[in-house]
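Because showing beats explaining, we think one record worth quoting, sequence and backbone structure tokens together, and here it is:
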Amino acid sequence: PYTIGLVVIGGLWAFAAQHLQLLSMMSHLSLSPDLILFIILPTLIFDAAINIDIHLLYKNLVPILLLAFVGILISTVVIGVSLPLFSSIALGGALLFGALISATDPVAVIALFDEIKAPKRLLTLIDGESLFNDATAIVLFTIILEKHIFSYQDIVKNFWPGFLSFIIVLFGGILIGGIVGLLGSLMLKIKKGDMILQFTVTLITAYISFILADRLEVSGVISTLTAGLVFKATSEFTIRRRNRDSLHHFWKFFSFIANSFVFLLLGFTEFIIFKTTQSIQRYIWIILLSIPVIILARICIIYTLIPMYNTFAGKKRKISKSYQAILLWGGLRGAVPVALVFSIPHSYPGRTLILHLTFGFILFTLLFQGTTIKYFMRLLGIKPEKNELEGVQNVVSSKYSFGNEYLTTLVMNSFLDTFSEEGFFVARDEESGNPNAYILKKQDIVFLTSKEGKEIAFSHKKMNTNYLHTMLYETLLEFDKSLQNVSEIVKPEELKILVDTSAESEEDYNQKREINVLKYIPSDQIVTNLSSSGKMDIIKELLDILNKKGLIPNNEEAYQALLDREEIMTTGIGAGIALPHAKISGINNIIAVIGVKKEGLDFQAMDKKPVYIVVLILSPASDPVPHIQFLAAITKLLSNKERRERIIESSSSQIYQIIKDQ
């Protein structure tokens, strides 16, 4: 990985500065704790927080917190008790070193994981642990240093005050970061499309959250981490999807510069320290003996806490032995230990030895563990992340052609926005090599989509065909009014006749994902004696049924919303079905009514044929998620030709029973 190469280059740079007169002025450069803590660290923490897979973080939060909090305590104790056995360092200094050296920095490993497409869960475990244990290590280090802990008596005396300080510092950081993050998110809502504002606000938030927390003597790392996670959680509502991609790249670049600077100066500083310190020969054996002790501490963490977690975790959430091995070997050290060791006062007993131990172990993890992790993964049989649909049976693909490439780009962006509003996690498919390829995922529903020229392609499970068609149909209905002629461009026969193009079967459909139609349509909202014969009259007649029951707060507003929807594109989808629908304010749940016209009526349907079944649907404007789910359920219900014919010939009570039995 490039970070390890930068350490080597930094060392060579320091060597050149020592021997070349031209570069001699640079020989005094070094990493300072303030530079790392107040300039570099907020950038790295905020970038990791806003770009981490928040769904995977939530699923793996328990093992991550165990490793980051309990694990740091175990590691500190093991190192603190072991070091005095073979060195002159006192218990207090050993505990201080144990706290600072337990902070992992997986930058080099993460860079490698991105390169080889390592499993996302493994990446989340390593990245998540590092995010949280940096904060824990800093807090624990500060408590040991400020409480002047040098003996077992000091530990007993300061245990409860130290524990209280630990809690206050951590939760204080969460509070400050949460407030700053929310304020920043509110500022972004002022102009959702202003990319410069978004860059500026996120940058200010990262540093303000850290500095403010530090001045209030709570955890700056936890504060910045919390602010970043708040931004991540609210970005769907405060930042437009296409701008989220730009923000992602902005922070990746900013983080890349910060990381490069740290590792370059890290190599430079390590060479200067080892070169200029005359006592290095005295400490070399202690450094070599400390390496297996620190690794032993890591072994105690991984092989105590993870098996404990696996005992209570479900089968799918257990962490495999191969993952445990990578968690052990991937615990590299970097910027945080350097910042902490430089912040130790010069008068502190054993500071020189702690300095050598810190840089010695960092160098070992980068040059040995970092360079062998790839081969270690191969040895353990950890393979690159599979395509989301690889190996899945009954996968189908479809393509939709548009008039020109510019229009295709507009439609693609609208599709992605609709999926995002529906609750799908939208991520760029980096593995495909296509910059316009995306993975759309919500629970176990997965769509792979990409844009090539004038075409948009989808791959998905066969059982999700109806769902996809409904999503695409709804997207076109929401499309800008300047594209009202879209029906002439998109080839309606390929996209809009949802019922006849459905590829799923009764047996394949996953009932657990289907919304309960009867929850929103009681028996008295099914009518078979419709008297109207025109399109607008039928809509008004069905709307009056809901209005008489007091279900609609404003009848005129609802009627106008339905008319506006019909002006964009007819909701007569063909096969004798019409689904007039709109989103209105003032309601909390879906409201629907089914009307049957046995003689048929002209609804200006896409297939130019009469409509016999009309389902009028009103959804809450405040919550778009149930809207498409209900449309998909109705489409599924009416996709069976025999069932449609039975509904047309049945009474209201019989129709209710048909729906109940399906």
Notes: The first helix runs from residue 2 to 19. The radius of gyration is 31 Å. Confidence is low (pLDDT under 50) at residues 480-513. The CA atoms of residues 198 and 526 lie 49 Å apart.
